[in-house]
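Complex record, three chains
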Amino acid sequence: MARGAAVSLAVARIGAALLAVACAVPATLAYAQSSTTRVIPLDQLKSGLAYTGEDVRALQADDFANPGMLWVERGEKIWNTPAGADGKSCASCHGDAKSSMKGVAARYPAIDAKSKQLLNIEARINASRSGDQKAPAFAPESEDMLAITAYVNMQSRGVPVGVSIDGAAREHFERGRAFYYTRRGQMNMSCATCHEQNFGKRLFAETISQGQPNDFPIYRLEWQTMGSLHRRLRACLYGVRAELLPVGSPELLDVELFLAWRAQGLKGEAPAVRR
Amino acid sequence: MAPRPFSRLHRTACARPAFARLLATLALAALPAHADLLPAQISADSVPRPLTATPGDAAHGRALLLARENANCILCHAIPEARFSGNLAPPLDGVGARLSAAQLRLRVADNRQVHPSTIMPSYFRSEGLTGVAAQYRGKTVLTAQEVEDVVAYLQTLK
Amino acid sequence: MADARIQIAPQVKRGDSFEVKIAIRHAMETGYRVDDVGKPIKRNVIRALVCKYNGTEALRVDMSSGFAANPLLQFWLVAGNSGEISFEWDDDAGTRYAERAAVTVAG
């Protein structure tokens, strides 16, 4: 018996070494060959709206009942309220958002000409808020941040998502893509496990969508409030028991760029309603 | 986090004569921390020997399958008489007739050893994972005893 | 700032009933939830909401934690004179809110 145990343990040790080697291979098998090969072809992209229920679709379509419109309205007030050292409002410099902000959100995340950083629309608004308006930046995920983004993003309703992954954006895209296809968390799942291999199927009671970013910020019934794309991503990370990255973190920004590239051509739908 | 040189599995699996236990402890100390199922425990597509000395409790196993904060198998699998369930995976109805306890044990503990590209989490594996939240790092989803409980329940699905 | 939105038909006919809708941005915090670090979140729900039509009380709703966040109320009134529909409400935190909208009656 004792000898048997020793022998099998010796085997076990070798086995364990092999196992460790196997584990060192990145868990990113689902990768397409070229980094710009699309797993979901452009003509098969669908917004998350297609995977929610009739009730949610009706709520989103009704501009009065859609609770997200409460934030849009608050955002419009912020747009027109003077703030900062020179007492200027967003409108003082940008005029009517309906024309000046039309299609802007659809181009973000983008590399900022001044700082050379990758900024999403929240960060771009804040750069203008503190740099141009000289007012205190909006806190991440605050009511005002959500309100002004809802207002700005709504001006891109119907405008196709189209981000650039050229130049300095490219390395962010590659990192975002690697993040997307890496299995993570104690549940060991990648974003693609759910949103590319299993969309349309049910995870418990929830129908999985393609995980598209074209309609944020969203009013989520489960949250009973508005939330940003990064908040949604944190909910997905939480679900697989992975490390929660902060809203606005470089990793989430990179994934956001990848998501936007992946969503190319989907039309803006902010503010959306989700379960 | 409390240091865990080896998991409960290794202790119980080797808990036979005192001499063997001593050897086992020495040998295991050389293994990477938290190695989960040992390759030696796996034979073809199964884990023939129970992970613990206490037989599995099928009723507790069923509760685990349904528990939102734990195994949560019904995220993906339908099981008999569950009100809701996901459909990412085949229903588990009849699985106890299709697969032996030994085969079920490996599928629950580490289904990746059966289907390398499976989407099913490995419930008794803490190694080889990326970006695990701090509170779960180095821990398996289920304990060895819970794996036995789940296997006991799956065996009733004939 | 923009705590509510009111919707009324642009013009209504005397004697006809018309629909009034109000959507209110309010967390309706039940007092049963905890925040990210496990601290209980204090209850804060709207207590009472009163709607007046040209100064006369037309509707009073006693609200409770049974209401979802950001409640939407819709109801019907009978058109009398042109004037205004006003709303007032307060919550557990002691904040008082008011919002109004004009109503134009023809005939």
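Note: Residues 64 and 100 of chain C are 23 Å apart (CA to CA).
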